[in-house]
Amino acid sequence: MYGNIYTFWFAETPIVAINDFDLIQQYFVKDGDTFAGRIHVGRQAEILRGGDFGVVFVNGERWREHRRFALQVFRNFGMGRGLMEEKVIFSNVFEKAFKNTYSVAKL
What we know:
By secondary structure, this protein is mostly helical. The protein contains four helices and two strands. Strands 1-2 form a two-stranded antiparallel sheet.
């Protein structure tokens, strides 16, 4: 319906939405410091979230701090490493090794 990047309006504030993983990674991970200074949506953030929190609604040094924390957490959970690929390979090897086994329930 919409493209990979589009703008919508939240009250009087234009919001840019990015719906492509590669573009999100490019803009927020690789070129993250470029996007550190965004408009302040204070009243809207106060109404929706109770204040400026997270990675999306903060600016400047607070944004950098939250971004560093989020990236550290993502890395701890395997982002940027081939952990999922390793699990798929292990699953395939396991399935092949035990393909000709029999169910105990049938005996």
